[in-house]
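Quick question about two entries, pasted in order.
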Amino acid sequence: MNKRLLNIKELSDYIGKKPQTIRNEISKGIFPIPRIKLRGALKFDIKDVDDFIDGIKREVN
């Protein structure tokens, strides 16, 4: 079974952006991927992450 919710470290590895950069963008309100707060921890749905990446690919093409 694949994991659907990613923490910041896993998201960082998946999209190639440093965890601190992700945190900074979240605090500035400019991080484009929706997040979920689950038991006090930020989580990111892999489907939202993939949708974001697909959107970038469409913009480039």
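Here is the second entry:
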Amino acid sequence: MLDIGFEQKRETGLQYILDSMTACTPYGAELIKRTVPYASEQKAELIVELNNIERAVLGLAECGEDYRLLMQQLSLFKDIRRSLKKCMELPLSEVELFEIKRFLINLRSLVPLFETVDRSAGFENIELIGCESALKLLDPDEKSAAGFHISGSYSERLKSIRKEKREIEERIRRESDKDAREQLMQQRLITAAAEDAEEAKVRKEISKKLRAYVPDLEHNINCIARLDTTIQKALIALKYGAVKPEISDHVSFTDMINPMLSDKFQKQGRAFVPISVELKFGSTVITGANMGGKSVALKTIALNVMLCQMGFFAFAKSASIPVFDSMRFLFKEPFDPEYSLSSFGSEIIWLNEAASDIKNGRPVLIIADEFARGTNPDEGALIVRAVVKVFDSARCVAVFSTHYDQASQCASCHYQVKGLKNADIKKLAEKITDAKEGLKIIAKSMDYGLYKVEGKADCPRDALNICRLLALDKSILDEIKKSY
């Protein structure tokens, strides 16, 4: 399953990226809105998309003015798709013919601008087709005026009727006799009706002839959408220093970030610590204290994998992914009131769907944040260890964050969030004067980076340090220490 829901987009920061993109055209805006990950059988198309973004990134850096002019011209395009659809079945109105004519005039100006950019870029599968014959059909007098008028050039009868109407109008203007003037007015009504009928006939004929050009117009619309989207993706890549991902057999990111979380942290006076991971097929467990950034790591991984498979650059210094056949994410309780189940029951439904995905043997990405947190700790630990073990032998990249001990021993790979590992707890304690302020100080001191744990290791004990820093009641703290 590659259908990413809105809640998952919002939770991971994907929607944040999509919302930050400002397309030049309605076609690009719609393509961005309905962007989905490429399927595994579309690997070649994904590579073409990534190559085109790379070309646009280089072009924007080296030929910025050419791209500025190109984007300026793109911004003039309006959406004519409804008019084209109607054209295939019904005559178009004068307004609709005007919209198509304006599109064609804008296309005429766009083509040379695109050719200038494309000479150095060499975009793949983006090729604009000139539609001069279609424009001539809508501009028989070749005036290149933006407006549209049914010219007498379309019909000798129409030209004759309009001449007759003008003559009658001139006679009306000169006539002073009331009865004669009224008679002329009746003649004008009859002539105007004849003009309307002939114009409708001409519009019907124009629309019929225009149908032959609809496939080329639709082709150009698709190319404009891809061109616009490619440029927007390149601009995002330049903004964040993103990198073109390699398509390989494993997930690997060096110093990746999550722009939504990074911007959020910045507003809080905190810094986002870049995350580096290497995830091969099998299970990977991420451990760390609840304030230690496990969710940050998972959302950052999910975001960057999704973006790469959707044909974006990765927010990292280097990136590599396989093309997944399915992606399953569990960040918040996947609770649907319709099922009337507990949060744990909803997690089991999610787990069954993930388990079903791995049975076809095609690559699957599975990410779960604190799975089985909705049941009691003893059973939860047993269930998580079993799930990690099963997915470890499947053709999937499964990443689980957990606070359950020994879950990591069932996985091929184990990462820990650094958390307070390198912090000077004594100095931190001296800074904290009250619990509420202490939370902010601890958060700023947390290192959300990951480090790989070699060998067997249980969950870290950052929670105990947090209890100390927040001055937990001494009697409770002493009792906790006895269990360590």
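Reply: Strands lie at 246-247, 251-256, 275-279, 282-287, 318-321, 326-330, 364-369, 396-401, 413-419, 447-452. Residues 178-210 form the longest helix (33 residues). Hope that helps.
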